[in-house]
Amino acid sequence: MRNNRQLRVGIRRTALAIAIGNSVFNPVLAAQLSELDEVLVQSSRDSSTAAQSKRATAVITRQQLDEQQPDSVAEALKYQPNIEIGGGPRASNQQPVIRGLSGARVLQISDGARQNFNAGHRGTYQIDPELLEQIDVTKGPAGSMWGSGAIGGVVAQTTRDARDMLKPEQRLGGYAKQGFSSAADQTKTSGAVYGRLNEQVDVLINGYYSDQNNIRLGNGDDLMYSSERDSGGMVKLGWQLDDNQRLTLSHRRSESSGAVPSNPAANVVDNSSVIDRESTDSNSILEYAFNPSSALINVDVSLFHNRTQIDEFQMVKGEQDSTDYRTVGLNLVNRSTLDWGMLTYGVDGFEDKSQGERSGPNRPIPADGRTQVMGGFLQADLPLADAWTLTPGLRYDHFKTEANNISDSQRSDDEWSKSLALSWQANDWLELIARYDEAFRAPTSEELYTTGTHFMVGPFSNSFVPNPDLKPEKAQNKELIARAQFVDLLANDDSLTLNASLFENRVTDFIETQVIMDFANRVFESRYQNVQNAKLRGGELAVNYRLQDLDLGLSYGRTLGKDANTGRALEGIPADKWVASVGYWLWDRQLKLGTQLTHADSVSADNAQYDDYTLLDVGGHWYGLEGIELGLTVDNLTDQYYQRAFSELYEAGRNVKVNALYRF
User: Fold this and answer.
1) Among 154, 162, 211, 478, which is disulfide-ready with 194 (CB 3.0 to 4.6 Å)?
2) Distances (CA, A) of 303 to 67, 138, 309, 653
């Protein structure tokens, strides 16, 4: 039982390249289906594994990251059904779109710490995949465990750890890696040193540096102002106090600089919209884990501090802007195994502080805001019979927000979030799950308190008007999940896994910017308003078949969105997506080859038509010599000139990515 309640990700099998229904790049190594139990889904918060979780999940392992060579977290998830890349081709602006929702509606966490930064047209995913051991996603609302923000899902990023990288008897190790990507002439250098200082203390130092030119599109043109320079690193110190206790201290920092449009997801109309942007993101976490022999105690406690600073210089107008966003927080989670079931419960809280300065006339005035949230949660796993499990969950959150630059601006509110799941293990190979989940998203200080000028039209100024009466966005999701596993189906030692889900997510009080240009009454203002009730319906299917060195995969994802009041289709919903994959091992498993075929359907909107497209990606990874790995990946092999649905920008053309790694 205790093995199912591991303190953290723990020992990961580097041979594992597939999570249930989610591998569309790599063939499975010599893994058996039982090895899936060792992949903990950090976004679930209850220490469940990919096989045990009662939610729709996706898992990307370190090996998949090495072989796919993504430039962003969103790109690493691009083959998953009902997960799309949002924000355009600039990696620093990309974010995952999960079942039609993105941005602040998808909760982002790193090693359990919330990453809350969200400010206008600025990238929110600051962690380079080079520093990550695993990415996992919970699809759909998860408010009963995480509180505010998780109405579309949760993206959990787990950073690397010396214990995962050291061999059993190794005391000191490291690696050096050099990569190149052709679409932007990007060079990337990365490396790490890790080791055990003694029997109790381990340390990891990990870093990277990359530099790229403008991105080449499928028609041969360059995407102007898409060059950038990125660097970052992480130091992590672990102290195993005894067999039951571990203390971890980590600090991560990343820097990015480049000239970009003020909205990196938009085309450059003229140079007046181009800014020189420098961003710095840092995160410090102190974690304590205690897991004694008692079945009642398996506790994780963490304190964290995040800070994101962005300095921008408008090169034509000479205007200087700055943004400073800070978060401090606490998490406490315990898991107790009892004779009649398992409980996951805890408390957490955080405080966000945002400040900004805008120089020059007729500019927005950012809120000098502060948001405080405290919450407590409880989830129970209750076996009803040999084949039935009931999982109810309940969470309470209290939050308050105020702006120091606006008098009488303080407001407070509270929310209850509920969940209920019923699972039935129908037989040895089939599990059926029905679940209901609620979630909410509290308005940000930017949405509540922004003032100043939004834009100018000739002599007319459109101004932001604060709206402290905004209501939280709320989600109610109903979902059916089916999972099937077969072995020795068509041949000895083959395996087939199938995951399917159907969902309906009703989101009320959508917060959007409402712009009024009433020339007759001379009313020119912008404000954030609760303007829409949305209904998001869809499903996903993932099938994987493995026979010896061959792995085949097929997945499909579809989300339909409409305004629940008017019945009109919602904009911003990604296209239906098919992904087919083939992977094969050669030369006694020294060389792995893979290919993925992605097809996205066409999408019609009121004022636009987005064509369908088909992309072919191929790759290979060689493990022929001990300590040496060589990788080659070609994204968009046929050099398609394509545009994702509701994206203003076209994506990168053919991109040949090579890397060489030496590990000692």
Assistant:
1) 162
2) 33, 23, 21, 43
| Cβ atoms < 10 Å from Cβ of 133 | 17
pTM above 0.85, yes or no: yes
The dihedral sign for the CA sequence 267, 272, 275, 276: positive
Q: Which of the 8 DSSP states describes residue 214?
A: P
CA distances to 144, 286, 599, 610 from 375, rounded to whole Å, are 10, 20, 42, 42
The per-residue pLDDT for range 176-221, each reduced to its tens digit, is: 999 999 999 999 999 999 999 999 999 999 999 999 999 999 999 9
Q: Are 510 and 532 in contact (CB under 8 A)?
A: yes
Q: Which of 278, 128, 264 is nearest to 209 (CA)?
A: 128
d(CA 319, CA 310): 14
The answer to whether the CB of 417 falls within 8 A of the CB of 395 is yes
- Spatial distance between the Cα atoms of 194 and 237, rounded to a whole number of angstroms: 10
Q: Tokens standing for 536?
A: 């998001």
* Residue 444: closest CA among 370, 522, 376: 370
Half-sphere exposure (Cβ direction) of 605: Cα atoms closer than 13 Å: 16
| Residue 247 · residue 238 · CB < 8 Å | yes
Q: Which whole-number Å values give the CA distances from 253 to 76, 114, 228, 308, in the listed order?
A: 21, 16, 17, 10
CB atoms within 10 A of CB 479: 22
Q: Please state, in angstroms and rounded to a whole number, the distance separating the CA atoms of residues 264 and 88.
A: 8
Question: What's the CA gap between 539 and 481, in Å, rounded?
Answer: 9
What's the pLDDT tens digit per position in 583-607?
999 999 999 999 999 999 999 988 8
Residue 352's identity, in one-letter code, is D
- How high is the pLDDT of residue 38? 65
What's the CA gap between 1 and 69, in Å, rounded?
Answer: 36
Residue 480, beta-bridge partner list: 434, 502
Residue 103 to residue 5: CA distance in whole angstroms: 31
Compute the 3-state secondary structure of the chain and give helix, strand, coil in percent, each to the nearest 5.
5, 60, 35
Distance CA(23)–CA(67), nearest Å, equals 12
Sign of the CA dihedral with 488 first, then 489, 491, and 493 last = negative
**Cβ neighbours, 10 Å, residue 489:** 12
Angle at 650 between CA 646 and CA 654, to 5 degrees: 135
Whole-Å CA distances, 51 to 279, 333, 433, 475: 39, 21, 13, 26
